[in-house]
Design goal:
Elements lengths: L1 H10 L6 E5 L3 H10 L7 E5 L3 H11 L4 E4 L2 H5 L3 E4 L18 E4 L12 H6 L1 E4 L2 H7 L3 H5 L8 E4 H5 L13 E4 L4 H17 L13
Parallel strand pairs: 1-2, 1-4, 2-3, 4-5, 5-8, 6-7, 6-8
Helix pairs in contact: 1-2
Length: 213
């Protein structure tokens, strides 16, 4: 969820208060937890074919948010939308996306996976995490490798925006999309935070992992 939160912070409208999530698996929980840290999320719409998963999600968060089950259309009309499914046929069409919705496309992690319609990707301010990974197995892999989408359609990598080399959302922007495949450096950074927390709180014990001492 942290990568999506960083992208949301730079690409969503500042006063985003509604969030839609398509897919009620484990990632749905971390998406909401992280994004609620950087936007004043009040209303949440969760959409999934599995009613039991939806019920568990609603039960988990109903004390903190105005959370309800809904359709993909209802989720996609929110200020922020996170898609966390393994589908190969796009679920989110241009007709259902809000005028200023920011989309975190998190589900694609292999060739052929594709959650967001090509028309949405082409019309949006499109941001990726890594060119090699996203064109191979990210959300844009299908339209990119069929020639529908090209490098000219990619606005920037999220790192370029974070360090200030490229702009994030501007007042004239409509829909924005973040294509996230997940990077090893993110895992290293998370592990470092865990290590520092453990060291500061005397939690755990040191050991010679590589046998160098």
């Amino acid at each position: 969820g942290a990568a999506a939160a960083v992208a949301t912070d730079h690409l969503a409208v500042p006063d985003a208060s509604s969030m839609g999530i398509v897919g009620a698996g484990v990632q749905a929980y971390t998406q909401l937890e992280a994004i609620a840290e950087i936007r004043p999320i009040e209303r949440v719409v969760i959409s999934d074919l599995d009613d039991e998963r939806v019920e568990r999600f609603v039960s988990r968060f109903e004390g903190r948010f105005d959370v309800s089950a809904g359709s993909i259309e209802e989720a996609a009309s929110c200020d922020v939308l996170s898609t966390v499914t393994p589908v190969e046929s796009p679920l989110v069409s241009p007709e259902v996306v809000g005028e200023h919705t920011h989309i975190n496309a998190m589900g694609a992690d292999a060739e052929g996976k594709h959650e967001i319609a090509d028309e949405v990707l082409l019309d949006a301010k499109l941001v990726i995490d890594d060119h090699a990974q996203t064109t191979h197995s990210g959300e844009i892999n299908v339209p990119y490798n069929t020639g529908v989408l090209t490098d000219a359609d990619i606005h920037a990598a999220i790192g370029e925006i974070v360090v200030g080399n490229r702009e994030g959302r501007t007042p004239k922007d409509g829909v924005t999309v973040f294509d996230s495949t997940g990077l090893a450096i993110q895992d290293v950074a998370a592990a470092h935070v865990v290590y520092e927390h453990a060291a500061e709180n005397d939690n755990g014990y040191p050991f010679d992992l590589l046998g160098l001492n």
